[in-house]
């Protein structure tokens, strides 16, 4: 095994190794509103589920030179947003929205996307997304390193689930992942799609005794 002690690594290398190790990762493509009502759209892949007792998600947003990114600032200011799952069909548009734009320019317009009203939050949703999770801020956990906030960790509560009929069966609450064709984040410029699917039955306790 090749070993690297984290204490010997700079922040860039630590990020590179984390991003390469925790794979594949779903991408949270999130719309938020600033205090003036302007829409921001950006993708984040340090994203996961937290609980099913409450429908909670987590998104970690690394600060830029000590300042919260627009999405983080908007979540703190308004307490809500909409997370969209990225598919192979929207991959190129998602990539366009990762760029830093000058103030006043819209990522939505630049990527040729369209907005639609959400159900339970003021932040609008993307028409092109097949899965939309409307969220409200449940908890903000500032991650401090050497006395300064390095990352804004958000625990977000899903207040409305939106599924396109082409990928969701309301009778069974079953999401057709093959039809969804979700995009996964790897490391660097690499992404992945779903390969062959397979199932396994979990063993019960009696079979392990």
Sketch the topology as an H/E string, one letter per element: HEEEEEHEHHEEEEEEHEEH
Largest sheet: 7 strands, antiparallel
Distance between the termini: 33 Å
Question: Uncertain segments of ≥5 residues (pLDDT<50)?
Answer: none
What fraction, in percent, of the residue positions are helical?
Answer: 10-25%
Total helical segments: 6
**Radius of gyration over C-alpha positions, nearest whole angstrom:** 18 Å
Outline the structure in words:
This protein starts with 10 loop residues before the first helix and ends with a helix. Helices cover 18% and strands 36% of the residues. A seven-stranded antiparallel sheet has the order 3-2-6-9-10-5-4, with helices on one face. Strands 1-13-14 form a three-stranded antiparallel sheet, with no helix packed on it. β13 (184-185) and β14 form a beta hairpin. With 209 residues, the chain is α+β, with helices and mostly antiparallel strands.
Topology (elements, then pairings):
Elements: H1 11-21, E1 25-26, E2 28-33, E3 39-44, E4 47-51, E5 56-62, H2 70-78, E6 80-85, H3 91-96, H4 107-110, E7 115-116, E8 125-126, E9 131-145, E10 148-163, E11 168-169, E12 174-175, H5 177-180, E13 184-185, E14 191-192, H6 205-208
Antiparallel strand pairs: 1-13, 2-3, 2-6, 4-5, 5-10, 6-9, 7-8, 9-10, 11-12, 13-14
